[in-house]
Amino acid sequence: MDRFLRPIERRSQRETFQEVIEVEKLIARINELSRKNKSVGLTEEEKAERDILREQYLTIFKNNFRNQLDSIEWTDEEPPLKH
């Protein structure tokens, strides 16, 4: 399984920190390719890499967003009035 696409589960702070570092490296590489594309252009291999990295980033973003939404607990109860 791709190192960026691991299923979300309870992880230690160290594992979470390492995953944040991996995502930051992913973003840095995407930005590097973007700057190169604007200045001198990309080879076909670099374009393919950029597309894969972008897809990985979007998958991570969507998974994290979905997990945030899934963790929301809705209630219909009104909080008690405090006097």
UniProtKB/TrEMBL annotation:
Keywords: Cytoplasm. Its main location: cytoplasm. One of its GO terms (cellular component) is cytoplasm. The keyword Isomerase does not apply. The keyword Cytoplasm applies. It is found in: Cytoplasm. Gene3D superfamilies: Helix hairpin bin (1.10.287.540). InterPro entries: DUF896. Belongs to the UPF0291 family. This is UPF0291 protein JFN88_20780.
